[in-house]
Amino acid sequence: MADIINLRQARKAKARVLKAAEAAENRVAFGAPKKAKTLAEARRAIEVSRHEGHRLEGPDRSE
């Protein structure tokens, strides 16, 4: 025989799981303080400029 389940409870459990997943995504996207975001952005800019500084040719010359 099949297990008997309460559809209302199953629906609520599914909603809880979806809400928890969305909360985890929001914590990643919006959870960092502004100081950490600006620091990460500055570090990324420095890395890009260093990487571009090692090019043998200029960015506009593709010959």
Automatic annotation (TrEMBL):
<protein>
    <recommendedName>
        <fullName>DUF4169 domain-containing protein</fullName>
    </recommendedName>
</protein>
<dbReference type="Pfam" id="PF13770">
    <property type="entry name" value="DUF4169"/>
</dbReference>
<dbReference type="InterPro" id="IPR025227">
    <property type="entry name" value="DUF4169"/>
</dbReference>
